[in-house]
Design brief:
It contains 5 helices and 9 strands; from the N terminus they run ββαααβββαβαβββ. It has one domain: Gcn5-related N-acetyltransferase (GNAT) (Aminopeptidase, 3-Layer(aba) Sandwich). Helix 1 (about 20-30) packs across helix 3 (about 45-60) and helix 4 packs across helix 5. The protein is globular and about 35 Å long. It has helices spanning about 20-30, 30-35, 45-60, 110-120, 140-145, and strands spanning about 5-10, 10-15, 65-70, 80-85, 95-100, 130-135, 150-155, 160-170, 180-185. Helix content is about 30%, strand content about 35%. By secondary structure, it is an alpha+beta fold. Strands 5-4-3-2-1-9 form a 6-stranded antiparallel β-sheet, with helices on both faces. It binds coenzyme A. Coenzyme A binds near residues 99, 108 and 143.
C-alpha cells in the first residue's frame, strides 16, 4: 500500500527505516523516563526498536496507515515515533507515540498527535481511533484530551491497567497550525 509522510509546523513524519533503529533505541527505548508508562517487554532497546519497525512495516504493507519516525524540521534529528497501528488482539486502530526526553514540554506531542489523527480521518478514512494510557501518565492523557479524545472505559491492554480513549471525526479539534500530508513514491 502507499505510504505517507506528514509535516507539521515543527516536525516531519516519515515511515521508519532500518537506519533509524539506533536512534530509536538510544533516545526512546533505552531511556527509563520515556519507558516509564510503556508496556514492559523483555527485550533490549534495540530489539524493542526492531519490533516497532516491523509492526509499522506490517501495517503499511497491508493498510493505508502505519508508523512514523518523528524528525525535527530544523535539523533533521530523530526526536520520536508515532503511528496508527493496531491495538493488541483487536481490529481497532490505535494511536501510539513517544518522544525523546530532550523535547518534552514544548507542545510537540500535541502537534504531532493532531497531525496523526487528521491523517487518520482525512487520508486513511478511519471512522474511529483509540488510544490507551496508564492513568499516571498525565502528560499523555492531556495530549489526547487536547485533540478531542474522550474517555471510554478502564481496561487492561499490554498487561497494563489503562484508560481507553477514543475519537471520531466529529470530535476532532483541528487546531490552526500547519499540516500537510504527502503521498510518498517509495
Ligand atoms: C507523553 C509525551 C508524548 C508528551 O509529550 P510532550 O511533547 O511533552 O507533550 P505536550 O507538551 O504536547 O503536552 C503535554 C501536556 O501535559 C502536561 N504535563 C506534562 N507533564 C505533566 C505532569 N507531570 N503532570 C501534569 N501535566 C503534565 C503539559 O503541561 C501539557 O499540558 P498543557 O498543554 O495543558 O499545559 C511525552 O512525555 C513522552 O514521550 N512520554 C514517554 C512515552 C509515552 O508515555 N508515550 C505515551 C504512551 S500512551
Amino acid at each position: 500500500m502507499a505510504k505517507y509522510g506528514l509535516e507539521t509546523a515543527r516536525c516531519r513524519l516519515r515511515p521508519p527505516r532500518p537506519d533509524d533503529l539506533d536512534e530509536w533505541a538510544s533516545k526512546l527505548f533505552a531511556d527509563p523516563d520515556v519507558m516509564r508508562y510503556m508496556p514492559k517487554r523483555v527485550m533490549t532497546p534495540r530489539e524493542n526498536a526492531e519490533r516497532a519497525l516491523r509492526s509499522s512495516d506490517q501495517s503499511w504493507s497491508t493498510r493505508n496507515h502505519g508508523g512514523w519516525a518523528i524528525l525535527d524540521q530544523s535539523d533533521g534529528q530523530i526526536i520520536g515515533r508515532c503511528g496508527l497501528e493496531y491495538l493488541e488482539a483487536t481490529d481497532e486502530v490505535e494511536l501510539g507515540y513517544g518522544l525523546a526526553r530532550a523535547v518534552w514540554g514544548k507542545g510537540i506531542a500535541t502537534e504531532v498527535v493532531r497531525a496523526c489523527v487528521r491523517f487518520g480521518f482525512e487520508s486513511a478514512s478511519l471512522k474511529t481511533i483509540v488510544a490507551v494510557v496508564v492513568p499516571e501518565n498525565i502528560a499523555s492523557w492531556r495530549v489526547l484530551e487536547h485533540v478531542g479524545f474522550v474517555f471510554e472505559k478502564t481496561a487492561v491492554y499490554y498487561d497494563l491497567d489503562v484508560i481507553y480513549y477514543s475519537i471520531i471525526a466529529e470530535q476532532f479539534q483541528y487546531g490552526d497550525s500547519f499540516y500537510r500530508a504527502r503521498l510518498l513514491d517509495e
